[in-house]
Amino acid sequence: MLSESSELDSVSTVSELDHRHHPFNLGKPSNDKIWYHIYKKERKEKKTRASKPKIFKYCNLIAVRKNIIREKSRFGDTMGYICLEELESWDIDYKWQLDIAESIIKSNHIKLEHMEGILIK
Q: Minimal CA–CA distance to 84: which of 20, 22, 18, 16?
């Protein structure tokens, strides 16, 4: 994608946020017992899942033009994206996440034919 689009500074993988994790659902505590929505106005205006704008999370794979890196920029100004399914976008930082990822693969919820012979059977 980066080699085909000269206007892009970078391309990264993203995944659409589940509605439960949409920023309009974020809140902050005001004390030990009470919390409030940060985006109260937007939440009131966009009451349904379908009415909320799509929001992506960054999935840690990025291709960046070398001149952008030389300018000490991580993404540049014009970012392209490749949207992954939720099951393809796991960030594995802990053993329990690796265990779950292996279980997902073994149960055939995700296919990784290009990894055949390498994966734990």
A: 16
Question: Who's near 74: CB < 8 A, 6+ residues apart?
Answer: 10, 62, 64
- Global pTM reads 0.71
Pair 14, 75: CB distance under 8 Å: no
Q: What is the rounded CA–CA span in Å between residue 27 and residue 40?
A: 9
Tens digits of per-residue pLDDT, 70-113? 999 999 999 999 999 888 887 889 999 999 988 988 888 877 77
Helix (H) or strand (E) run with residue 81 in it: strand 79-84
**DSSP secondary structure string, 20-58?**
GG-GGG-EEESSSS-EEETTHHHHHH--STTTSPP-EEE
Pair of tokens at residue 20: 């439960």
What is the domain partition of the chain in residue ranges? 90-121
CA dihedral 12, 96, 24, 37 (to 10 degrees): -140
d(CA 61, CA 63): 7
